[in-house]
Amino acid sequence: MSRVITAFRASPDRGRGLARDMRVRWALEELGLDYAVCLVDFAELRAPAHLARNPFGQIPTLEDDGLVLFESGAIVLHLAQSAKGLLPDQPHPRARAINWMFAALNTLEPPILELESALLGESDKAWTAERRPLIEQRIDQRFAALSTRLGAAPWIDGAFSVGDLMLVSVLIRARGPGILDRHPVLRDYVARAEGRPAYQRAFAAQRAVYLASRG
After folding, report:
1. pTM higher than 0.85 for the full model?
2. I need a labelling partner for 120 at 20 to 30 A (CA). Which of 83, 84, 133, 165 fits?
């Protein structure tokens, strides 16, 4: 198998589909591409073999016919450009799909990650109680803008694309704190995406790894 991704052997997301290899698995399933998975634990993330794939010691990575990539966005974009199914053929719709990928990673995800850090890593700090509403306000503002743009459409710009895949992968992370439910348009958008057979296959594969790690 020439196409190999890395994923956690025991993911801290507890099988909820939040680890970033899920985005890559989903793209591979949507495109019908075969792949193998190299499972790593936290010690192996700092080992020379993995640092050669990702100098920051993170997952996922992709090895594809001699090419080694890290960063989930770069990997998903590479895959989408390698096979038909996630990028429109016409230049303008194709550029817009990629635009929404960057919006997901650069506009929507940062405040969500900031909230996760506050809740998981800084919950004992005095400033967290004051900081949380400010972070949530930023998330709500961006979610409201995305809801307005999406409106009653099933997908963000015509047919399902890599833009939708990345947007949904980011939005799912706001489900735990309850923010996603405050935005029904986006909640339903996520539900539609989760109903796609490719998503279901990717989720089942990732969750199976988590369940196996529990013995």
Report:
1. yes
2. 165
